[in-house]
Amino acid sequence: MNLVDYLRISLIDRCNFQCQYCMPEGAEIDYILQQNLLTLDELLTLLREVFIPVGFTRFRLTGGEPLLRPGVVELVKQINAFPETKDVAMTTNGFLLAGMAEDLYKAGLRRINISLDSLDPDIFDQIIGNRGRSRWQQVWEGIQAAYEVGFNPLKLNVVVIPGVNDHEVLELAKLTIERQWHVRFIEFMPIGNNDLFADRGWISSEELRQQIREKWGLETAQVRGNGPADVFQIPGAKGTLGFISQMSECFCDRCNRMRLSADGWLRPCLLNETGQIDLKTPLRQNVTFEELREQVNNLLTIKPDINFKQRDSGTTGNYSRTMSQIGG
Ligand SMILES: Nc1nc2c(ncn2[C@@H]2O[C@H](COP(=O)(O)OP(=O)(O)OP(=O)(O)O)[C@@H](O)[C@H]2O)c(=O)[nH]1
Ligand SMILES: C[S@@+](CC[C@H](N)C(=O)[O-])C[C@H]1O[C@@H](n2cnc3c(N)ncnc32)[C@H](O)[C@@H]1O
Ligand code: SF4
Ligand code: SF4
Fold it and tell me: Which amino acid positions bind [4Fe-4S] cluster 2, per UniProt (predicted)?
């Protein structure tokens, strides 16, 4: 059985973007009420008393947009201070990053993944649902700031949507030649916007690799990560290219993670909703930590069954929670 030691923690279900593929404008989303959000103290208690004792040592902060959560810098510091912590990372849209990168780095964050779906500000704004002042430049500045502060590896996440940004794959891949950045192409998943998915579908990673191979060649590479990306490199490039292929491949046999939502639900698998448990309610009812650990341990035991048995039903697109609520 695979070691499950990586917890993706959604800090907030709200976001300052409304990406077409995640939480499109007009989507009816039931936001978590303030009183139902895990407080940062509750989250730290769960980590210290429950998750770390059952074996979790790697943590990724995500959302919604994690940089919108008040106290996020202090939280990074506290998670980093647990002696058992091996890795604290974050996935962000980068919009607020320029002003926070240095504090996050000083707090102990070392790995950061930033979403950047386009190098064209107009296409970018179209994807993130922006109707006002363009947001691209500020995200770009956030990426530069993170790089200058020293985040390494620094990864850029691109969800490839046919007919929207797939023509930019070579331009995005080219970023890795001169810079030590890691660009990852993610196959579009039917969580968040079924209509767009039905209309556009997804492009397989192999098809993208073929384009890149024809232009520059491509070889396998290594970069530090805990995730499902297959990593390649343009020969001689400073950075790498990752491919996250959840639609065309099944990497569930190497699954090492669970997800904790901002309202305290623990979810064993991204692609289906089986087996989720509520940890916030029993925590607030003072159920013993021992009992909570037992519940999480039970879920760890049945996780492999949930992963494999339920995977197909998970790609049909029936979800009660969007990606912004799950944390990706
Ligand atoms: N199906 C599936 N997709 C995943 C899983 N983990 C990550 N992804 C996809 O990969 C995207 C990017 O993930 P990131 O938040 O950057 O994290 P990661 O790839 O695990 O990070 P690293 O540790 O840096 O490799 C997510 O939004 C999902 O689309 C997973 O366990 N299952
Ligand atoms: C839900 S977001 C949360 C963190 C942050 N707001 C961000 O965008 O990086 C995490 C990741 O999920 C990815 N994502 C969201 N919806 C997706 C979908 N339908 N298919 C594939 N990836 C998706 C995003 O591109 C992002 O890299
Ligand atoms: S992908 Fe990230 S930035 Fe885009 S809407 Fe979802 S949570 Fe927000
Ligand atoms: S689909 Fe589920 S089991 Fe498969 S890798 Fe993702 S989270 Fe793990």
Answer: 252, 255, 269
